[in-house]
Batch of 2 targets.
Target 1
Amino acid sequence: MKLVLAITGASGIRLANKFIKYLPKDIELHVIVTKNSKIVKKLENRKKTFIYNNKDIGASISSGSFQIDKVAIIPCSMNTLGKIAHGISDNLVTRVASVALKEQRKLLIAPREMPLSPIALENMLKLSKLNVIIAPPIMGYYSNIKTLKDMEKFIIGKWYDSLSIDNNLYKRWK
């Protein structure tokens, strides 16, 4: 499986790092880094990982013929979400999302802002109607969560579930 992970916005980088940490090693990971280059250092020891600059709009992953399987934008800034909702492809993240929509690939967006403005809600509704998975990092308390690490594993496990990535990161409802 080829997975593109785009990391936008400053808040929520920790969840993107954990998303990568728990990701099965057999998944080919393509990471788009916007302003936050600290993530690159954490990826140096992971095989099957490719790093892209957000300004490289001509990168291989921006083409439908590259045939990525899934795209996750974690965290997703409201700026990026708005651009995707309105078809603006002015950087690699928005271009990859546009191609995922065009090719009908699975696209997960984890917006990280709150409270949500009416504009943000309209953009999320628009994308949801296009089968984009809107999955903000919302806490779940039914899974016997006791620590921040448990909460992070729950959120990441739910994202993996949405992307059809096998995991046992949280206690499931019985």
Target 2
Amino acid sequence: MSSLWIIIAVVVGYLVGSISFAVLVAKRKGVDIFKAGSGNPGATNVVRVLGKGPGYTVFFLDFLKGFAAAHWPTFALHCGWIAVDADTLLWMGIAGLGGAVAGHSFSIFLKFRGGKGVATTIGGLLALMPWVTLGALLVWNLAFFASGYVSLASICFGLTLMPLAAGLHEPRALVGLGLVLAILILWRHRANLQRLMKGTEHKFERKATKEQRD
């Protein structure tokens, strides 16, 4: 296993993840997303403030940067640009996704501020373990349409990853990734979780102003 390639994957992932499409799209509309809605630079807040078109654009671009950060090593291997063993390739994908999520949440371009990274996580996971991701997305949709809470759906998505990865016999590294991402998603949604427990969390509305979601 080549540690150098894994470090490169982390750095590339972090730089790609640090690009905040929520900030860029909102700025083109003359809006400072940090001062609008919930103040969170994520797709949900963009939907809330600017509407579905810009919001879904941000979600897709955030999804795409996660997918690219996790998938470029495989693409580069198939193109003959790099030569690594299977273990290194797997860890490069994991490192790329980890870097992208870290960059999205703590962007070097935004003074280490950022969103919660759910769309970026979904994109990277789809590249690494598609069936697990599709199962977790099904859980997300069920939780969202049953409750109306984006935050609760995101938490359910995170908590589903490790059991699905283990149940589908993914490599241990990906099972461990599921656990790490579940912890990260819970931590990033800790304020939402407290409001859910108190019964004060707001359901998704385009113009809501208090909920911090991604």
